[in-house]
Amino acid sequence: MASLSFLAVCRFIIFFRLHDYLLCFICGGIAAGVSHLRPYCRPFSWLDTSINNTYTGAETFPSWTLTIISALPAVVYILAEAARHCLLEGIDGGILADELFAGRAELFLENRRIFGEGALCGRAERNGFDVEAPPLLPPNATRSPLSAETQPKLGMGATEMRSSLKEEAQERQNAFGEAPAVSPRGQPSPKGIPFSKQGDAAEGPASSFHTADSSPAKRNVHVYILARPWQRFLLDAHMWVLVQAFSIAFSTLIVSGVKMYAGRLRPDFLSRLRNEGFTPTSVGVDFCTVPKDGRVSFPSGHSSSSFAAVVPFCFYLLHSLHAFRLSGVSLWRIMLGLLPLILPITVAVSRTRDNRHFFDDVVTGSAIGIISALLAVKSIMTVNTRTGQLMPRFPYRG
């Protein structure tokens, strides 16, 4: 029993990507360790005008502002998802309110025990799976009756589900050329998975996917049912926070390593030396160690971190505005979703105004931040073209 519980916990952690936070911490720890190394000692000349710009002690965006820029989107994710799932659920017309298809999909997820198991069995068994659906709620948990607005949507969802199941059953029958062995309503399947006794979707088509001697070797698929709003809130908020964390951690790791390897001198390098009392006539000085911060110009860490933090937030705004529909959306939505990019662009340009970086440092740092953000979003999220939103990817073995 202890080993079973341990395996269940491990399965839960892996399925919901909780272990990916460990990767983020590892990337951040390596980046912090690399930043304490001595950068490459690039030779210089006191007559080089490209590194003789004025040193300004005050920065437009000090380093502590990057912490706020990086953490603020995560706070927005949590508050917005809490409002969407726990406060605005079912309210029509709001930006965060679910549209018809999104609401139906969410209703299907919530009522998977009613008419979802048949669909899952059909899709899973075509890939050689056997389905287990342990609910997150106790079996005797009571549910509130459906409202008058929800009942028509539930009927529409059940109708479409029956139609989809019939099509899948016909495809499977044509593929194997055998008549399906139909399990009686309410009776357990050959693997002991009972069909739902509620709703018409559990009859006929749902159970017709169990065929005799035609299925390949099967594995178990564990389905987690998120029947409560707070459960869906935790899932969505966790996924977006993970996107934010991985984007920032990965970009920081890349930038820290490149900074130490390149050892490029900042535009105000000579001014930093003079401020510390060094001159061309100074003797017995190891200029490879002073000033260390003046030798890490390439690429720009401020530019990378700000873009890595804000680009996922732009994707979240576009997701909330349903901007990924194949049918097309208004350019106003796209413009509104991309509006926060003003902040990282301002941060990047300010680094050249403060004589902290060259323009190519800023461009390279910005590119690293953008690529890191795109990689994080692509790895963790996928597009639901019907709703125009992003939804989490879950690891599985196909």
* Low-confidence runs of at least 5 consecutive residues: 92-143, 178-214
* Major sheet strand order: 1-2
Can you count the helices?
13
The strand count comes to 4
Strand-and-helix sequence, N→C? HHHHHHEHEHHHHHHEE
Distance between the termini: 28 Å
Mean pLDDT: 76
General form: elongated
Please give the radius of gyration in angstroms. Answer: 28 Å
Portion in strands: under 5%
What does the largest sheet look like?
A: 2 strands, parallel
Structure class = mainly alpha
Domain Phosphatidic acid phosphatase type 2/haloperoxidase: 241-377
Subcellular location: Membrane
Organism: Leishmania enriettii
Main location: membrane
Structure report:
The chain is mainly alpha-helical. The protein has 2 domains: 18-98 and 229-280 and 289-392, no CATH class; 100-222, no CATH class. 53% of the residues lie in helices and 4% in strands. It contains 13 helices and 4 strands. It has helices spanning 2-15, 20-35, 63-87, 100-110, 112-115, 117-125, 150-176, 229-262, 269-275, 301-320, 331-338, 342-353, 359-380; strands spanning 129-132, 219-222, 381-384, 389-392. The strands form 2 sheets. The chain has a two-stranded parallel ribbon. Strand 1, helix 7 and strand 2 (219-222) form a beta-alpha-beta unit. Helix 8 runs antiparallel to helix 13, helix 10 runs antiparallel to helix 11 and helix 10 packs antiparallel against helix 12 (342-353). The radius of gyration is 28 Å and the shape is elongated. It starts with a helix and ends in a 6-residue tail after the last strand. Mean pLDDT is 76; it is low at 92-143 and 178-214. Belongs to the PA-phosphatase related phosphoesterase family. It is found in: Membrane. InterPro entries: PAP-like, PAP2/HPO, PAP2/HPO_sf. Residues 132-214 are annotated as: Disordered. It is a multi-pass membrane protein.
